[in-house]
# Entry
Amino acid sequence: MPQAQRSLMQLLHGQDIWERFEPSSTTRAPEGWNGDHPSLKRLAGTTAGHVVIDVGVWKGQSTITMAKAMKSSRIDGCVLAVDMLQPGG
# Structure
């Protein structure tokens, strides 16, 4: 885990909430509304900061796109995904 992600996790939760998490495999591609647009890759891959805040995440495509761009650019950072759960959703 990158240092920026570790620091943010400690600040927000006081611990690593993903410590024992094991993702299940899925065949579905992440969905989003233009969440794989080249501008997201360009901005996240050249960010001067270490934290990108993605507001209005929906199904995560933009979050994944920006996280992959940061990783491929070797940026020690993370993407903080923020969304609101809709009642009944």
Remarks:
- The chain has a mean pLDDT of 83.
- The chain has three helices and two strands.
